[in-house]
DNA sequence: GAGTTTGAAACT
DNA sequence: CAGTTTCAAACTC
C-alpha cells in the first residue's frame, strides 16, 4: 500500500515541521504541531482508488471529494483516507460521524500503508475530535489563509493519524456521537479541540476545501466540464466509480445527498484543482464568497444529485455518471444547477450558519429560512450581488408581511431592484463569460429557493400566499417564466432574480397590470424600464397596492409564482414532484396553440431560472394544442433526450407546417384515444399504475414512479411514434393517480385535483393525462422512449 | 428598428 | 364560462 509518494510526502512534512516557520506557527497557534504537520500530507494524498471503497456512505464520498480537491494527488490511496477524513471535517458533526464510519471503512482499505507514518500519533479521540471540529470549522469561516495553512496541517495530520491509528475504533465512536446527537459531538469537539483557534484553523482548511469547491463551481461552466472531462480520462475510472458509488448512497439520505453533491462536485472538479493550484485551494478559502459558492454548488449539486439519483435509479446499472459522455452531461446539469446555485448559497448559508448571512436572517426569525437567507445575502453583498435584488425583494416581502413595514418594503424593493439591476447587469455580463454558473447563482436567488428548498417550493408557495404581494411576487418572479425577456435569460434571471433585472416596456398598461412584468413580479419599475406613464413606482405605492389588491381579488394567485419547482425538499411533495429540474411546472399551464409550446410565448416553455436545467414542461393543467414542449409535454412525455429534444427543436424550426400538423393530428388522435381509453378504465389504470410503479419508480416514491411510468415518455413516444393506445391508456391512468399527487403542487394552482376531472372545460386537459411532472419518468421516456414505454406495458398487463 | 405573431391578461 | 379585446413580449425581417 505504501507508495513512494507517501514517503516523500512524509519527509517533506518532517522538514516542514523542523522549519522555523513551522515552529513559529506552532507557537502562535494552540494547535499541536504534530497535527499540523500531517495536514499537508493528507491533502497531498488523495487516492481515487480508495474512494470507491470508501463510499459506504455518501458523506464519506463527499468528504473524499473535498479532499480530492485539496489534495491533488490522486495516486496515493492512503492519502485518500486522510482526504476522507478532512472531508468529514467539513461535514457537520453528524456527517463527520458518518464520515468517520466511512473513513473507517476506507481505512480498512487504505490503512495499511497509508498512515504514512507521520506523526499520526494522535489518539483516536483526537481524531474523532478532528472530525467534529472540522464540521464546526466549516460553519465558522476561517479568518486568514495563514491559519488555513497551519490548520490544514493540523487537521490533516490529525486525519492522517486517525486514519493510521484509529481508523477502526474511531469510526464506532463517531457513529455513536452521531447517533447521540450533535450535542455529544459538540462536547467532544470542545473537549477535544484545544481551542476555537484550532477550529478556525480547521475551518480554514475547510474553507480551502470550499474554495476548491468554488473552483469547481466555476468549472461548472462548460469549459470546466471539458476540463473535467480531460481530468476524468485519467482518474475517470476512479471518479466515475466514486460517483456511482455515491449516487446510490446519496439517495439514501437527504443530508447525505447534499454532502454527496459536494462530493460529486469535488470529484468532478477535483482534477481541476490539481491543475490549478493546491495553494489556491487553501488560500483564500476563508473568504465567505467561496463558501457561498460552495454552498451554491452544493445546492446545485443537490439538485443534480437528485437528478442523478433518479438517473441512477432509472439506469442503475448503467452508471450514468461515470461515462465520459455522461460526465459532460453532468457538466451541463451542473451549469444549470449553478444557476440555481444562488439559491444553493442561501441554502448553504442556512446549513452553515455563517456570519453575514446569519446576521440578517436572525433579525427576521419569522421569515422562512429562505427569506432569511435572502436577507443575509444582501448584507453579504459581495457574494450576493446578484442576490441582492432578491434579497431586497424578500425584505420587502417581509415588510409586507407586517403592514407597518409596507412602506419599507416598497422602498426596499425599489432599492433592491435598483441594486439588483446593476448587479444583474454586471454579473450577467461578466459571468456570461464566466458562465452561467455565476450568473445562475446570482440570479437564482429565487430559483435557489426552489432548489433549496426542498423547502423552497413549499415555502415559496407559503410565502407567496402569506405575503401580500411583492414578496411573493418577487419570489415568484424569480421562478416566473418571464425572465425570458432577455436573450440571456439566465443572467437576467439570475441578476434580476427577477425583480431586479426585469424591465418592462409597457405603454398602455401603466405598469399596473399583469402585462407588466415588473408589476407582475411585484417589483417596481426602474430606470432600465422603457415603460410609459409608469405608475409602478414607489411614488405611487398606494396605486400599486390598490391595483394589486384588485387583481388579487379577481385572482388570488395572480401574483403567485407561475412556476413551481418540485424542489423536492418538501418531503411531502417530494415524491410527486420529481426532483428533476424538469419537475418545475407552470401552475396554470399554458394555452399555446400555434407555438407548440416551443417558444417563449409559452409560459411553460419560457422558463424559469431553472429553465437552464431543462425548463418547465407542460403539465396536465396546460390546455395547449400540439404541445411539443421539450421539457415536458402535457401528454406526459417528459424531457426528451438531448437528441430528441434537438430533433424536436429542429422539427419545430425546420419542420414544415404540414409535418407539424401531422404530429399535432397524431397527438390529438392519441389524446383522443387516451381519453377514450382512459375514461373507462379507472380501476385498471390504477392497478396498472401501481404495478408500473415498481418498475418505473425504482428511484422515486410510488407517486413519482407512477408518473414516470405513465410518464409521459410512454405517451409521448406513443404519440410520436403513433404507438399503441394501450400505453396512452396506461399513461392516463397514471395521470389520474398523479393528479392525486398533483394536488400538492397544484393545490396552489387550484388545478383540478382529479386527473380526469381536471380536464379543462375544453376537455383538452382531461385528455392530457400525462404530466410533465414526473421528471424522472419523463427523462426516462426521453432517453429511451421505446424501451421505457415497452416495459411499462408488460408490467401493466401482468398486473391486470 | 419596424412590423408581425403570439398568447396571457383583461374585459364583456 | 365562453368569447372578445387589449396588451406586451417574442419573434421575424
From TrEMBL:
Domain of life: Eukaryota
Compartments it resides in: Nucleus
UniProt feature, compositional bias: Basic and acidic residues: 661-675
Keywords tagged on the record: Nucleus
GO molecular function, one term: DNA-binding transcription factor activity
Region of interest called Disordered, as start-end residue ranges on this chain: 66-91, 269-289, 349-376, 422-453, 649-680, 743-780
Record field: compositional bias (Polar residues): 351-362, 422-433, 750-761
Domain CRC, residue spans: 500-632
Pfam families the record matches: TCR (PF03638)
Ranges of biased composition (kind: Low complexity): 74-86
InterPro entries found in the cross-reference section: CRC, Tesmin/TSO1-like_CXC, TSO1-like
GO cellular component, one term: nucleus
Chief localization: nucleus
PANTHER family according to UniProt: PROTEIN TESMIN/TSO1-LIKE CXC 2, PROTEIN TESMIN_TSO1-LIKE CXC 3-RELATED
Similarity annotation: Belongs to the lin-54 family.
Name of protein: CRC domain-containing protein
Species annotation: Malus domestica (Apple)
Amino acid at each position: 500500500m505504501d507508495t513512494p509518494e507517501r514517503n516523500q510526502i512524509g519527509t517533506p512534512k518532517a522538514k516542514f515541521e523542523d522549519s522555523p516557520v513551522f515552529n513559529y506557527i506552532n507557537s502562535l497557534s494552540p494547535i499541536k504541531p504534530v497535527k499540523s504537520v500531517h495536514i499537508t500530507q493528507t491533502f497531498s494524498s488523495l487516492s481515487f482508488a480508495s474512494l470507491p471503497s470508501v463510499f459506504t456512505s455518501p458523506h464519506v464520498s463527499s468528504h473524499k471529494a473535498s479532499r480530492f480537491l485539496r489534495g491533488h494527488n490522486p495516486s496515493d490511496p492512503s492519502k485518500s483516507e486522510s482526504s476522507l477524513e478532512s472531508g468529514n471535517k467539513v461535514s457537520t458533526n453528524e456527517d463527520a460521524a458518518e464520515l468517520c464510519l466511512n473513513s473507517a471503512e476506507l481505512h480498512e482499505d487504505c490503512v495499511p500503508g497509508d498512515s504514512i507514518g507521520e506523526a499520526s500519533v494522535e489518539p483516536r479521540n483526537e481524531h474523532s475530535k478532528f472530525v467534529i471540529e472540522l464540521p464546526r470549522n466549516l460553519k465558522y469561516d476561517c479568518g486568514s489563509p495563514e491559519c488555513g495553512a497551519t490548520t490544514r496541517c493540523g487537521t490533516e495530520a490529525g486525519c492522517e493519524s486517525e486514519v493510521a491509528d484509529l481508523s477502526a475504533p474511531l469510526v464506532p465512536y463517531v457513529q455513536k456521537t452521531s447517533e447521540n446527537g450533535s450535542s455529544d459531538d459538540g462536547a467532544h469537539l470542545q473537549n477535544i479541540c484545544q481551542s476555537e483557534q484550532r477550529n478556525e484553523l480547521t475551518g480554514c482548511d475547510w474553507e480551502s476545501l470550499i474554495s476548491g469547491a468554488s473552483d469547481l463551481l466555476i468549472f461548472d461552466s462548460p469549459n470546466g466540464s471539458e476540463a473535467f472531462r480531460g481530468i476524468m480520462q485519467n482518474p475517470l475510472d476512479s471518479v466515475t466509480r466514486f460517483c456511482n458509488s455515491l449516487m446510490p448512497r446519496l439517495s439514501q439520505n437527504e443530508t447525505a445527498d447534499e454532502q454527496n453533491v459536494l462530493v460529486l462536485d469535488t470529484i468532478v472538479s477535483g482534477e481541476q484543482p490539481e491543475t490549478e493550484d493546491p495553494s489556491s485551494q487553501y488560500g483564500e478559502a476563508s473568504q465567505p464568497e467561496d463558501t457561498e459558492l460552495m454552498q451554491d454548488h452544493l445546492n446545485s449539486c443537490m439538485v443534480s444529485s437528485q437528478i442523478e439519483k433518479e438517473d441512477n435509479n432509472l439506469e442503475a446499472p448503467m452508471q450514468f455518471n461515470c461515462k465520459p459522455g455522461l460526465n459532460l452531461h453532468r457538466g451541463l446539469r451542473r451549469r444549470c444547477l449553478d444557476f440555481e446555485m444562488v439559491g444553493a448559497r442561501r441554502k448553504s448559508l442556512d446549513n452553515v450558519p455563517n456570519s453575514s448571512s446569519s446576521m440578517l436572517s436572525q433579525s427576521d426569525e419569522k421569515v422562512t429560512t429562505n427569506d432569511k437567507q435572502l436577507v443575509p445575502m444582501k448584507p453579504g453583498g459581495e457574494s450576493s450581488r446578484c442576490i441582492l435584488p432578491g434579497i431586497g425583494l424578500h425584505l420587502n416581502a417581509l415588510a409586507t408581511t407586517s403592514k407597518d413595514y409596507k412602506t419599507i418594503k416598497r422602498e426596499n424593493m425599489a432599492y433592491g431592484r435598483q441594486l439588483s439591476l446593476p448587479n444583474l447587469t454586471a454579473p450577467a455580463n461578466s459571468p456570461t463569460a464566466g458562465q452561467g454558473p455565476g450568473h445562475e447563482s446570482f440570479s437564482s436567488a429565487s430559483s435557489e429557493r426552489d432548489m433549496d428548498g426542498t423547502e423552497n417550493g413549499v415555502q415559496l408557495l407559503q410565502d407567496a400566499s402569506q405575503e401580500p404581494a411583492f414578496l411573493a411576487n418577487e419570489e415568484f418572479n424569480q421562478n416566473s417564466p418571464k425572465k425570458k425577456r432577455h436573450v440571456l435569460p439566465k443572467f437576467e434571471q439570475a441578476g434580476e432574480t427577477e425583480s431586479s433585472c426585469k424591465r418592462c416596456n409597457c405603454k398602455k398598461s401603466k405598469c399596473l397590470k399583469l402585462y407588466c412584468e415588473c408589476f407582475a413580479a411585484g417589483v417596481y419599475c426602474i430606470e432600465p424600464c422603457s415603460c410609459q406613464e409608469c405608475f409602478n413606482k414607489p411614488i405611487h405605492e398606494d396605486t400599486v397596492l390598490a391595483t394589486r389588491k384588485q387583481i388579487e381579488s379577481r385572482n388570488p394567485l395572480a401574483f403567485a409564482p407561475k412556476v413551481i419547482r418540485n424542489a423536492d425538499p418538501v418531503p411531502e411533495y417530494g415524491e410527486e414532484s420529481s426532483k428533476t429540474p424538469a419537475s418545475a411546472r407552470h401552475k396554470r399551464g399554458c394555452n399555446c396553440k400555434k407555438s407548440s409550446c416551443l417558444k417563449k410565448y409559452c409560459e411553460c416553455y419560457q422558463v424559469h431560472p431553472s429553465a437552464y436545467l431543462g425548463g418547465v414542461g407542460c403539465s396536465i393543467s396546460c390546455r395547449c394544442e400540439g404541445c411539443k414542449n421539450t421539457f415536458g409535454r402535457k401528454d406526459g412525455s417528459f424531457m426528451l433526450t438531448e437528441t430528441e429534444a434537438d430533433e424536436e427543436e429542429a422539427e419545430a424550426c425546420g419542420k414544415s407546417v404540414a409535418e407539424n400538423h401531422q404530429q399535432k393530428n397524431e397527438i390529438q388522435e392519441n389524446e383522443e384515444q387516451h381519453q377514450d381509453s382512459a375514461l373507462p378504465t379507472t380501476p385498471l389504470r390504477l392497478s396498472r399504475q401501481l404495478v408500473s410503479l415498481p418498475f418505473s419508480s425504482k428511484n422515486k416514491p410510488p407517486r413519482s414512479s407512477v408518473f414516470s411510468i405513465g410518464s409521459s415518455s410512454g405517451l409521448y413516444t406513443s404519440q410520436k411514434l403513433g404507438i399503441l393506445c394501450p400505453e396512452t391508456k396506461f399513461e392516463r391512468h397514471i395521470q389520474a393517480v398523479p393528479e392525486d399527487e398533483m394536488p400538492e403542487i397544484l393545490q396552489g394552482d387550484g388545478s383540478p385535483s382529479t386527473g380526469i376531472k381536471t380536464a379543462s372545460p375544453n376537455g383538452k386537459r382531461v385528455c392530457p393525462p400525462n404530466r410533465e411532472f414526473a421528471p424522472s419518468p419523463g427523462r426516462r421516456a426521453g432517453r429511451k422512449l421505446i424501451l421505457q414505454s415497452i416495459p411499462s406495458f408488460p408490467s401493466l398487463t401482468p398486473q391486470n
